[in-house]
Amino acid sequence: MTEPTTGDATGTTRRRLLAAGASAAAVGLAGCLGTRDGPVPEPTVTSDRIDDGWRLLDESESTVFEQAYGPVTVRALERTLIYEYVSVAEALDETFDASGSPVVFFATRIDLRPALDGLPAGVGRDRLMTEVETAAVDAFRAQLRNAGIEDLEEVDEGTTTVTGGHTATAWRFEGEFAIDGEVPLPDGSTTAVDEPVDVTARLAVWHDGTDVLVAGGAFPSEAVTAVLGDAVPGSIDGETVVESIADAETAEALATDPAAFDEEISALIVSVE
Question: Which H or E run includes 270?
Answer without folding.
Answer: helix 258-271
